[in-house]
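Tutorial handout. Part one gives the primary structure; part two gives the three-dimensional structure as tokens.
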Amino acid sequence: MLNFKHFNLPAFPDKISDEEQLEELLSRPSSEVVKLFSRINGDIVFLGVSGKIGPSLARMAKRACDESGVKKRIVGVALFESKEQRNSIESFGIETIHGNLLDTGFQESLPALENVFFLAGMKFGSLDNLSLTWAVNTYLPAMVAEHFKNSRIVAFSTGCVYPLVPVSSVGSVESDMPEPVGEYAQSCLGRERMFEYGSNQYRTKVSLIRLNYSVELRYGVLVDIALKVKNGLPVDLSMGYFNAIWQGDMNDFVLRSIEQCASPAKVFNVTGPDILSVREVAAEFGKLFGVKPKFVNKEAKTALLSNSSLAYSIFGSPKVSINQAISWTAEWIKEEKRLLGKPTHFEVRDGKY
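Part two.
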């Protein structure tokens, strides 16, 4: 296996058999998360709960509350894709509210609960509808910062607000000046600035999560690479290096960041500890699939890389290693389990998604 950083890790299954087991693992709260929910006051709302991350994040919060013996109102707000998706989230014991967050009247009708997790955002197809991209990524956060000015807010951002940095570096840190490439990344920096404005104007306590990248078995950079290797398609090395973190670990960090909210807003990079080589990860999948990977283009000397040392100093290290995630992903794809069909476009270097 690849020689990546290891920590004192808990035991995990060698294989994840189905989506029920996967969802349980992604939403399993650590003892630290359980203790968190026994301490914090107030109810919780997840804005944009129906995306790739929201269901497992909200479910982890609900499980932590149950295990800590506290009762909180936990609400998920979204334009749900289907009745089945909404029912699935409600089956976890989460109250749902259906509506368009960009509708001023709808947003003003939402309960101003004490703890807010903001997950809404637009990336895929952003180049085709730039005005909507800016509305979702910048205008909407301004609305949320106003309506929830008396709450604590954890808002998802992205490592894309940073410039490409030398692969020989440790990656971008929170104190580095953002230099977003392309309108998607610029609109994400706009999202941060709106929450920062609200934090400064109303003294709202805010944490901003610069995520880069979250992975599980149905989507993510590992799935993107694995599918190309297995199907004999060339793997693009243009963006030759990346960071990744298991979504369950990311959920843990994000929930616990509610206690770190501050005014002015506090920024956290959230990603894995390794600078991963696309070529080496593809080669590992090649071994697991019994095929030889094909490659196009060559690695540049720079990449989109983040350093999460600050988050680790507060929350500890991720519990799932990249080796484990690669092994799980390979088995999942070998058995042709369900995928979300949402490529990350991690290989893009010009910010045009």
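Part three, for discussion. The CA atoms of residues 1 and 284 lie 7 Å apart. The chain has a mean pLDDT of 94.
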